[in-house]
Amino acid sequence: MRELRRVACITFSRPALHAMVLRFAARRVLLMLAAILLVAGCERLRAETLPPSFDIIARFPHDSNAYTQGLVFEDGALYESTGRYGYSDLRRVDLRTGRVRKSVALPDNRFGEGLALLDGRLYLLTWESRVAYVYDAGTLAQVDSFTYAGEGWGLTADGTSLIMSDGSDSLRFLSPKTGAVERVLHVTRDRSPLSKLNELEYVDGELLANVYESDWLARIDPSTGVVRELVDLADLYPRRKRRDADDVMNGIARGPVAGTLLVTGKMWPTLYHIRLRTPAAR
Ligand SMILES: [Ca+2]
After folding, report:
1. Which string of b and e fits 181-192 if b means at least 16 CB within 10 Å?
2. How many domains does the chain fold into?
């Protein structure tokens, strides 16, 4: 008992107490570091073992001088709009060979942007010029135009309205006749705005969007704006293989087979025919 009492009454000098506190703090830091490394290792392992989010069905040649802004495929015809001042155009392309069958140049002071096809007419945006050109899809002859506010980035159509992105989280639904705004859809992911929405494609009741400067493809509910899934397409054309001239991923079109897509990037040498491994596609 006397021994126990003595142990219970042990007192520490101040330097010894400081040393103990430091040792205790150092141990906690080491434990936290170990936990962080363990979690990071698990995340890496999980990323390495995740199945790819898509299957590549085919690869087609793509004009590596095409600064792809809009991509549309319908009834066997591939339409593409390209950007940059002095180089912008609208073109009809042979899917298999990548050859440009017919093209219409935009004025040198117009920077081509998104492209949509609705009721036999092609609609093409011009970034900051606030004018949309309307073409006959058969002849590529310009038949009309209208103006819009702000910037024009991506464009698609849901069968009734044009849907336009402007680099923000907002998508504007426009009247194809007048360009008037019918409604604005705010896109969110985990209740936060998802901005930098770029090229668009409306497929099977869903909006698909490239997210500028990323390899993500956002699957958006067109009625609520909620992102159902962000599909990572980074492995489609791995960054380590991209040439200096290759710019960002951009360009989505419905594919020639149901449930498939055609995707590419600005100045990319290849256009990919893919099928997403999403729940909706399974
Ligand atoms: Ca498109």
Report:
1. eeeebebbbeee
2. 2
C-alpha–C-alpha distance, residues 102 and 85, integer Å: 20
What is the 251 CA–ligand 1 centroid distance (Å)? 6
Q: How far is the CA of 208 from the centre of ligand 1 (A)?
A: 8
Burial class (CB in 10 A: 0-12, 13-18, 19+), 79: buried
Domain assignment present for residue 282? The answer is: no
Structure tokens at 255: 């594919």
Q: Write down the pLDDT at residue 170.
A: 98
Task: Tell me the residue range of the domain where 170 lies.
Answer: 55-276
107 Cα to the center of ligand 1, angstroms: 22
> Which residues on neighbouring strands pair with residue 253, listed in sequence order?
262
Give distance in angstroms: CA of 19 to centre of ligand 1. 65
Question: What sign does the dihedral 176-178-179-185 (CA atoms) show?
Answer: negative
Residues 207 and 257 in one domain: yes
**70 close to 115: Cβ distance less than 8 angstroms:** yes
Please give the distance, rounded to the nearest whole angstrom, from the Cα atom of residue 103 to the centre of ligand 1: 18
Please tell me the distance between residue 276's alpha carbon and the centre of ligand 1 in angstroms. 16
Q: Percentage of residues in the chain with pLDDT exceeding 90? A: 78
Instruction: Determine the Cα–Cα distance for residues 50 and 70; give it in Å rounded to an integer.
Output: 30
How many other CB atoms are there within 10 angstroms of residue 264's CB atom? 26
Residue 24 — very low, low, confident or very high, per pLDDT cuts 50/70/90? low
